[in-house]
Design goal:
The protein is an alpha/beta fold. The protein is built from ten helices and six strands. Helix content is about 40%, strand content about 10%. Strands 3-2-1-5-6-4 form a six-stranded mixed β-sheet.
């Protein structure tokens, strides 16, 4: 990511995560163990530290996923992570359903994450000041040559150089769609499909202009078991909508991975 002087440092507004194989280390399902889903006791503690530091810095956190919000929210809550996310910035496949905010867009241009960013995320977070309104009014799809194969594990700054948003995802097609639709969005490609790893955490911290993380206090084993035990109560609840299969795009940018 290109360096920026402190006096000209852009305001970081939001970090939006894909859920499956990005925020979580595997695919979330109604019966998933919340500790295992987020990579175990150690990773869960590191993830909490990162999310806490981002929100303390005034950065809004959200999720954009093809999994269901009805599945994602209980899993975040069971893992003690829901408190860090704005409810209005958690988007699942429901936004493209008949009663969803983007039902009409699915018919016209397909159900892609770029549409979610352009239609829901960007106006909600950038329309608060005159500079952002000017940015929105001047939007035009960038020339094709400005879009590149995403870097593996490092942040590609936004096309306009502001990088006001950061989007983290394990699918290069989703990265491409968001970069095409949202000029102010930097991206972090998680190519290995096993969730954000420590190097990714540090890349996010660098984007947010946060100091490197100190070792988080370990989550006590008993506390981790309590989280998993509490989640058992959800298994007797009515099941959320069925899990939609995730579209997998072959990664041609890092064939060694």
């Amino acid at each position: 990511m290109a360096g920026t002087s402190a006096s000209a440092a852009p305001l970081r507004r939001a970090c939006i995560f894909d859920f499956d194989e990005t925020l979580a280390v595997s695919t979330g399902s109604p019966r998933a163990n919340p500790v295992s889903l987020f990579g175990g006791v150690g990773r869960l503690a590191e993830l909490r530290t990162l999310l806490d530091d981002l929100t303390s810095a005034g950065i809004a956190l959200g999720i954009c996923s093809y999994n269901g919000k009805a599945i994602i929210v209980p899993l975040l809550e069971a893992a003690g992570l829901l408190q860090f996310f704005r409810p209005s910035l958690i988007f699942g496949y429901e936004v493209f359903e008949r009663d969803g905010a983007l039902h009409g867009y699915r018919n016209r241009s397909g159900a892609d994450k770029g549409t979610v960013f352009k239609t829901l995320v960007e106006p909600a977070l950038l329309a608060a000041d005159a500079e952002s309104e000017t940015l929105l009014a001047g939007f035009a799809p960038p020339p094709h040559h400005e879009l590149r194969v995403p870097s593996n594990g490092t942040i590609d700054e936004s096309i306009d150089g502001r990088s006001a948003f950061l989007f983290c995802d394990d699918d290069p097609k989703n990265i491409h769609d968001v970069r095409t639709a949202c000029l102010c969005c930097a991206t972090l490609y998680v190519a290995r499909r096993r969730g954000l790893e420590p190097s990714h955490f540090e890349a996010v911290r660098a984007w947010a202009q946060l100091p490197p993380a100190t070792a988080p206090p370990p989550m006590h084993t008993a506390a981790a078991l309590d989280v998993a035990e509490q989640h058992k109560e959800q298994l007797s609840s009515p099941k959320p909508p069925p899990l939609r299969s995730k579209t997998v795009t072959r990664d041609l940018s890092d064939s060694a991975v």
